[in-house]
Amino acid sequence: MPRSVNVVAARHRRKKMMKMAKGYFGRRKNVWTVAKNAIEKGLVYAYRDRKAKKREFRGLWIQRINAGAREHGMSYSQLMGALKKANIDLNRKVLADLAMNHPEAFKSIIDKVK
Fold first, then answer.
1. pLDDT tens for residues 4-19?
2. Total domains in the fold of the chain
């Protein structure tokens, strides 16, 4: 009995991957083996960097809060300690937004914890 190969499914799989390679440069966009490797590597980077993005944003928020706090004579760590002691539950994202875009509201928070 001859060997049966499901070419329809295989072509669908390859076509799906080649569609993901759109926009790549050179052989990465149209040669199956090169494109497959490039796509797999790209997906690994995407997975890794979804996690790294969260860390980078937290660092950015801390820098912004620190800059805002130092304008009012406090360091970041002093401010965060004072916020905890005063039971003010604002996360770093909100504090950073206030420090950058609403300095008067940020100043009122600092005055409250001083």
1. 899 999 999 999 999 9
2. 1
The pLDDT tens digits for 75-108 are: 999 999 999 999 999 999 999 999 999 999 999 9
Alpha-carbon distances, residue 56 vs 53, 62, 69, 99 (angstroms): 5, 10, 20, 18
The Cα 100–Cα 97 span in angstroms is 5
In a domain, 2, yes or no: no
Residue 29 burial (CB count, 10 A): 14
Task: For residue 102, give the DSSP letter.
Answer: -
Give the type of residue at 113: V
